[in-house]
Amino acid sequence: MDLASLLVPADAQGAVPLVPVTAAGLDEWLKAQGERTRTAVAAQAFTAAADSIAIIPGDGPADWFAAVGVAPGPLGPWALAAAAAKLPAGRYLLQGELGQAGLGWCLAQHRFTRYRRAKPEGPRVLATTSLSAMSGAVAEAQAVALVRDLVDTPASDLGPAELAQAVIDVVRPFGADVRVVAGEALLAQNFPAIHAVGRAAAAQPRLIEAEWGDPAHPRLAIIGKGITFDSGGLNIKPGSGMALMKKDMGGAAHALALARLVMAANLPVRLHLIIPAAENAISGNALRPGDVIATRAGKTVEITNTDAEGRLVLCDAIALAAEHNPVLMIDFATLTGAARVALGPQLPALFANDDALASEVLAAGMAVGDPAWRLPLWAPYHDMLKSSVADMVNSAEGAFAGAITAALYLEKFVAQGTPWLHFDTFAWNAAPRPGRPKGGEALGLRATWAMLRSRFG
Predict the structure, then answer these.
(1) Which of 64, 101, 233, 403 could form a disulfide with 306 if both were Cys (CB 3.0 to 4.6 A apart)?
(2) Is 237 a catalytic residue?
(3) Which CATH class is domain 3-110?
(4) Is the confidence at residue 129, as pLDDT, over 80?
């Protein structure tokens, strides 16, 4: 479905009125309505609870209208999502300001239909006088839909090669330059950690790199973990732990979607998008516990857990970004189960080496309804990454502070003085909510985009 067609400027065309009502304001609103409206509201036991809908016969020119329960204040991103999913196809005219609700209106109608035919249903088009809010809502909805579609695609159809093609398809229309390094060329071009993780798979690992924008502009590095499937390697996952591992490229999907937003808005930056892509598979030449591998930065790593592979591919990508002295470095990764244990499926863990930057992103996330929670880069835990045979281990012993030690590992490859954000995100909705079906999801994307707009827009 063309998401851009779902939000349109209000005009003289006929449309069904869509009236947001709060629970606190319901009685006052009813006083101004006719007897037919009050009767219809009572008959449907409509209390204006969030996400509730009442269909009401029209007292005026319209045959009927819809009252939608919303929270107090400006409409949030998901305020109209339930209405967009439940109302019949047609054209609706929003009574009042759109706020951020255009996002949920669009995404509630997005479907992942690659593998099954969707039931035929027409669009619900929302007409609004809030013209300034429309384009931004559509752009963000398209970015979130991109993340969802990529994450929902199984590894049989989205390996490293297909992920590289997806990057090309998104960035080339904006005039970006793309470079893909694959297979043994990774060793020749000094990406040994990416090669080590992906060498056991039938599909060759890749370093996917895109640059866009005026070289004179501030350089912005965006990095995403692209593990297209994670078996755990020789430290193999149990079946339950492997079930969702098609989503282990969720960080790459976030990075690509954020890059798309940057380019579509023509943000005055020199964008450097880096996605290390590999499948963590098992074969005779798979990475082994106890192996010591090289990295692009020259540091050596003792492999204590082959299932801690995401940080290995990311460290080569971060080192590449650091060579170009960005003014800001951001990475997204479905990195640790520890972050999910600590924060659950809806809150990505945020790590940052700059307090002001972290505060800016957290505030932006709250403002746009895309919250994150900061965890510390607790320096004493660097001791957990010490190795007796190499510069460091890739995974600390034991279960303590797993998300923190993973972030500390990555921090070792960030150049001193470079502001850096790391999102340890789930990239998945474990249960459906209005506008957010079970499946792939963007978590932390819109918060980061709001911060970038504020800094560079």
Answers:
(1) 233
(2) yes
(3) alpha beta
(4) yes
CA dist 421 and 360 (Å) reads 11
Collapsing DSSP to helix, strand or coil, 63 comes out as coil
- Which range, of 1-5, 72-76, 323-327, 364-368, averages the lowest pLDDT? 1-5
Q: H or E element: which one contains 141?
A: helix 131-152
* Residue 263 identity (one-letter amino acid): M
Nearest to 374 by CA among 396, 386, 359: 359
Indicate whether 113 pLDDT > 80. Answer: yes
Please tell me whether residue 74 adopts helix, strand or coil conformation: coil
| 246 in catalytic set | no
Q: Tell me the average pLDDT across 80-94.
A: 97
Which residue among the candidates 311, 340, 412, 436 is catalytic per the annotation? 311
**What average pLDDT does the segment 437-442 reach?**
98
Q: What is the pTM of this model?
A: 0.97
Residue 41: C-alpha distances to residues 49, 53, 345, 393 (Å): 13, 10, 36, 63
Name the fold adopted by 142-456.
Aminopeptidase (3.40.630)
CATH 3.40.220.10 spans which residues of the chain?
Answer: 3-110
Question: What CA–CA distance (Å, rounded) separates 237 from 303?
Answer: 16
Structure tokens at 401: 């502070």
Q: What is the DSSP letter of 296?
A: T
